[in-house]
């Protein structure tokens, strides 16, 4: 934990005070290798007509150097020149990790672009040549605004001689060059680190994948893969910087909101490399655990999570779905014009400095052909591209009134802890069960953030080490759910947060183990001793535990119920209203601790939101009780898919409210609670009066309200 989050908890410090006119909206423009100059110019004209100020381009190495040493930049020259004519800035994406057929071991086929890493050392000099050719050609072009080093980088599973040496060097550092220390933890008998194989090969072939193998090889593997990815990204960045010392660099990981373990994602290490941290958010790929109406809030959560990382100073959304997808997705869906507005505005409200769609025009061949386009398949304007123009125009109007936007200070902090996710990732391989699946900790944290935003609370997700040490005068709430591992000092830091005036909520499976998968005694480690309680076990039912509010069914929590023994002098008391339907036992206990309090929810709260959506109501009820006072502006009950995101502005007060669009609400109005007075909806331009009952009723057909008060 740390004392402050950038500028006394002010996230997104890269916001430009002169926000009006600043490039904010963009799209990937897909150019084909045989495109004419006229077609490329037409695509950029369509982008400008749609209100876009940014265009992303992939500099496809397999097309640029189709034959060794023969460089063909014609279509990209045309694109850069068209961008300049139409007042658009280029985000140029390097594809050095996706070489042409003649690079690598033998004359093999190639892929057009990929997320993966390198074949081996023999690829490095050709990669360097490709990067140098691209950067020299466009570094001084007036349309260039950014180098994206590597699209959606993944710290993957390249098992080469080079990565084996890296793995062994990593282990030497972890075990202080003491192979006997490794042997003791791994149940092995190596004479030197030079004998250690890749982690999946450590056990005898008969025992590979066995549940009783030591966790340690896999616990180290994800950290090593993450470090490898950071080093490779730095290698690309350094070559760019040899030629271009000024143009900002960016990367766009995909695993911001999922487990950082599977993809080897180290946001802190990545943030040290680039000036701008991006991300890709594709609901059709990545948000399959959530309901469609939750997507805008999830994007806001991802932006704010990245902004808590100390090495990250500027945040953008590098990719977001901007069109229909059928074949290239695992949850095929369109993106309605209203959804586009909510995606873009939610990200900007959370502190993103720009949002770029994937993509302006659909590809014409192979994977993704016909999918994702903002324009229709004829490259003509669609309802989506017209909505982008409207977003541009309404933002210009809004910034004129409000001045620059900044995310509001967080009232709720939700724990998203990669080191605990590593334990989940390993144990899920022995059987994916709802409530203990490999992504349940991460996905549950995301949906807890959504629930808090549905209540209208300003909410931030962060790792334990990036949480504030002390609550501020607003009485912040810190929620840790299914954080299955932490160190004793982490539990003690939670107690410190409460003693300083905050509220800490932990649930049934928090803090059971260390990050090395050893059980704490007592648990949750570090917190139990300070707060005067001890978890003595779990009671598990495969059907879960029904809960009731004042005797009325109120949802279900998955799998396990926490059994606790309290210190009689600690002052613990049960919440009387919320009970287990089976036997009437309390679901929640709390006690004062210093200036604040510690609260225990006996169920697995976050993962229940993933697998039991009807548990959202109970979670919102708990959050409101944790916070005490209601926020100034929030969606009223009856619109569970609606969220409110308060925004700090230079002039007046502003809250963005996002809801399912009018058709999805069955034509019902969107009702918002707000202090009495006069407001302007900066989205519709309508002047609104909050009546004596402090409620506003709006048509909100697009599901967007920008409620501003002077």
Shape: globular
Structural class label:
alpha/beta
State the fourth-level CATH superfamily of the domain at 412-627. Class I glutamine amidotransferase (GATase) domain
Number of strands: 30
Distance separating the two termini: 37 Å
Q: Runs with pLDDT <50, length 5+?
A: 3-17
Strands in their spatial order, largest beta sheet: 6-5-4-3-2-1-9-8-7
| Whole-angstrom Rg | 26 Å
**Mean residue pLDDT:** 93
Any idea of the CATH class of the domain at 412-627?
Answer: Alpha Beta
Largest sheet, in brief, is:
9 strands, parallel
- How many helices? The count is 18
Strand fraction: 15-25%
Features:
single chain; about 700 residues; alpha/beta; Rossmann fold; nine-stranded parallel β-sheet; 30 strands; disordered N terminus
Outline the structure in words.
With 710 residues, the protein is α/β, with parallel strands linked by helices. Among the domains are: 161-219, no CATH class; 412-627, 3-Layer(aba) Sandwich (Rossmann fold); 637-709, Immunoglobulin-like (Sandwich), CATH 2.60.40.1180. The chain has 18 helices and 30 strands. It has a nine-stranded parallel β-sheet with strand order 6-5-4-3-2-1-9-8-7. Strands 12-11-13-14-22-21-19 form a seven-stranded mixed β-sheet, with helices on both faces. Helix 8 links the parallel strand 5 (249-251) and strand 6 (276-277). Helix 11 (337-350) runs parallel beside helix 12 and helix 14 (440-454) crosses helix 17 (605-611). It starts with 24 loop residues before the first strand and ends with a strand. 53% of the residues are buried.
């Amino acid at each position: 934990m740390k004392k402050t989050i950038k500028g006394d908890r002010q996230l997104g410090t890269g916001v430009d005070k002169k926000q009006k006119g600043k490039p904010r909206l963009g799209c990937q423009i897909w150019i084909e290798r045989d495109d004419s100059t006229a077609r490329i110019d037409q695509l950029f004209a369509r982008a400008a007509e749609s209100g876009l100020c940014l265009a992303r381009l992939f500099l496809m190495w397999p097309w640029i150097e189709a034959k060794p040493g023969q460089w063909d930049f014609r279509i990209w020259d045309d694109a850069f020149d068209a961008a300049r004519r139409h007042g658009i800035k280029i985000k140029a994406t390097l594809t050095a990790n996706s070489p042409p057929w003649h690079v690598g071991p033998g004359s093999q086929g190639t892929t057009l672009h990929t997320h993966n890493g390198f074949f081996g050392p023999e690829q490095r000099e050709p990669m360097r040549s490709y990067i140098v050719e691209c950067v020299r050609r466009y570094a001084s072009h007036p349309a260039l605004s950014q180098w994206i080093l590597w699209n959606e980088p993944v710290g993957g599973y390249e098992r080469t001689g080079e990565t084996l040496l890296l793995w062994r060097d990593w282990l030497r550092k972890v075990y202080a060059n003491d192979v006997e220390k490794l042997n003791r933890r791994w149940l092995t008998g190596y004479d030197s680190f030079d004998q250690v194989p890749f982690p999946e090969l450590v056990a005898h072939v008969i025992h590979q994948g066995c549940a009783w193998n030591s966790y340690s090889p896999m616990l180290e593997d994800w950290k090593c893969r993450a470090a490898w990815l950071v080093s490779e990204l730095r290698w690309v960045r350094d070559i760019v910087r040899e030629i271009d010392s000024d143009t900002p660099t960016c990367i766009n990981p995909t695993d911001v909101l999922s487990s950082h373990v599977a993809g080897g994602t180290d946001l802190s290490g990545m943030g040290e490399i680039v000036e701008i941290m991006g991300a890709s958010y594709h609901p059709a790929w990545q948000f399959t655990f959530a309901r469609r109406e939750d997507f805008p809030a999830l994007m806001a959560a991802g932006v704010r999570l990245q902004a808590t990382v100390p090495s990250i100073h500027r945040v953008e959304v590098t990719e977001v779905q901007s069109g229909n997808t059928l074949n290239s997705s695992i949850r095929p869906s369109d993106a309605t014009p209203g959804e586009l507005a909510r995606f873009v505005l939610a990200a900007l409200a959370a502190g993103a400095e720009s949002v770029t769609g994937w993509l302006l025009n659909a590809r014409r061949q192979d994977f993704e052909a016909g999918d994702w386009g903002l324009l229709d398949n004829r490259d003509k304007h669609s309802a989506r591209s017209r909505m982008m123009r409207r977003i541009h125009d309404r933002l210009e109007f809004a910034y004129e009134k409000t001045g620059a936007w900044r995310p509001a200070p967080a009232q709720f902090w939700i724990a998203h802890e990669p080191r605990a996710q590593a334990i989940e990732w390993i144990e899920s391989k022995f059987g994916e069960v709802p409530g203990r699946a490999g992504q349940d900790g991460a996905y549950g944290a995301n949906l807890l953030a959504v629930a808090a935003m549905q209540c209208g609370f300003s909410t931030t997700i962060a790792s334990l080490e990036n949480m504030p040490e002390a609550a501020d005068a607003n009485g912040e709430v810190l929620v840790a759910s299914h954080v299955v591992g932490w160190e004793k000092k982490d539990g003690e830091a939670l107690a410190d947060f409460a003693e300083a005036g905050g509220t800490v909520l932990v649930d049934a499976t928090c803090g059971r183990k260390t990050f090395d998968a050893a059980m704490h005694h007592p648990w949750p480690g570090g917190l139990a001793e300070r707060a005067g309680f001890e978890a003595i076990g779990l009671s598990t039912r495969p059907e879960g535990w029904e809960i009731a509010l004042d005797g009325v069914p109120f949802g279900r929590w998955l799998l396990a119920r926490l059994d606790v023994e309290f210190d009689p002098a600690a002052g613990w008391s049960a919440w009387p209203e919320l009970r287990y339907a089976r036997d009437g036992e309390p679901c929640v206990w709390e006690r004062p601790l210093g200036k604040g309090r510690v609260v225990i929810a006996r169920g697995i709260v976050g993962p229940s939101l993933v697998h039991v959506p009807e548990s959202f109501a109970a979670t919102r009820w708990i959050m409101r009780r944790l916070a005490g006072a209601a926020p100034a502006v929030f969606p009223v009950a009856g619109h569970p898919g609606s969220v409110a995101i308060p925004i700090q502005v230079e002039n007046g007060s502003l809250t963005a409210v996002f809801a399912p669009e009018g058709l999805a609400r069955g034509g019902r109005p969107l009702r918002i609670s707000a202090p009495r007075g006069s407001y302007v909806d900066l989205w519709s331009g309508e002047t609104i009066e909050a009546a004596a009952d402090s409620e506003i009723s709006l048509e909100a057909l697009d599901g967007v309200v920008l409620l501003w008060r002077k």
